[in-house]
Specification:
Helix 1 crosses helix 12 (235-256) and helix 5 runs parallel beside helix 6. Strands 3-4-2-5-1-6-7-8 form an eight-stranded mixed sheet, with helices on both faces. It has a single domain (2-256), classed as P-loop containing nucleotide triphosphate hydrolases (Rossmann fold), CATH 3.40.50. With 266 residues, it is of the alpha/beta class. A hairpin with a 5-residue loop joins strand 3 and strand 4. The chain has twelve helices and eight strands.
């Protein structure tokens, strides 16, 4: 199962979600590959890869034709492998724009290795440039982390509409795994209103699990550890364990049912 973690807005816990879910799935004895597609390489560094050691990265594979298996590396987390990102991805839209079949380059690459893994998790840069488009064109499902903030919520409809266009033109199997509420802070009245609005609008598309604001989640990348290594009893670790269980249930359901159009709203 190839799962893309996508968001139109930065700062919503997207990379934390990708890394934490990948590690939680690996802890359940799934063979997992995390592919870092963000030029900031935050997912790669969160798993202990220093900026000086990012090469070979996914840029070598996507832009310059390096065999993908040469870019896969083990991590310190059992059952979890990684393809790093690098600053070379900054120019990915320009580089990919000059190539044939630019929207499906990643799909072609991952098709060669998808049988090696139970889950391939794609951490995308924010927005809908060619890298997120490639991720959605390659994925079986996608997950949308959303902070309960006005600007984050307003971008969900347009993201789902863009995903539906990609499903129609490039990837008929693409399905929405769900919308995950992140950075939830119920000390704010606005948070409650936004959570209620998101659940009202998208219904069962929203995960039952919510990831609350948790300082340990923010600290873990600085220690080059997943939240499960850094603070296994933290509320953030518990939330992502539950989110991984829910993702397994949702993706199992997607495997059993034909793909239907991605709808904006319940």
């Amino acid at each position: 199962m190839i799962t893309a973690v996508v968001s139109k807005k930065g700062g919503v816990g997207k990379t934390t979600t990708a890394v934490s879910l990948a590690a939680a799935l690996a802890a359940r004895d799934r063979r997992v590959l995390l592919v870092d597609l963000d030029s900031q390489a935050s997912a790669s560094m969160s798993l202990g890869v220093p900026r000086s050691a990012l090469a070979p990265s996914v840029a070598d594979v996507l832009l310059w034709g390096r065999p993908v298996r040469q870019a896969i590396r083990r991590t310190g987390v059992p059952h979890l492998d990684l393809v790093t990102a690098s600053v070379d991805l900054v120019s990915a839209d320009v580089e990919l724009g000059n190539l044939r079949q630019r929207e499906v380059r990643l799909a072609s690459v991952l098709e060669r290795i998808r049988g090696d893994y139970d889950f391939i998790v794609l951490d995308c840069p924010p927005g809908m440039g060619l890298l997120p488009v490639n991720a959605l064109a390659a994925a079986d499902a996608f997950l949308v982390p959303v902070a309960p903030q006005f600007l984050a919520i307003t971008g969900v409809d347009s993201l789902l509409a863009a995903a539906e266009r990609i499903r129609h033109h490039h990837n008929p199997r693409l399905a929405l795994a769900g919308i995950l509420l992140t950075l939830v802070d119920y000390r704010s009245n606005e948070t409650r209103r936004n959570v209620d609005e998101l659940r009202r609008r998208y219904g069962a598309q929203v995960f039952g699990v919510e990831v609350r604001i948790n300082i340990r989640l923010a600290e873990a990348p600085g220690a080059a550890q997943t939240i499960f290594e850094y603070a296994p009893s933290a509320t953030g670790a518990q939330a992502y364990h539950l989110a991984a269980d829910e993702l397994l249930l949702r993706t199992a359901r997607l495997r059993r049912t034909p793909t239907t159009p991605i709808t904006a709203g319940a």
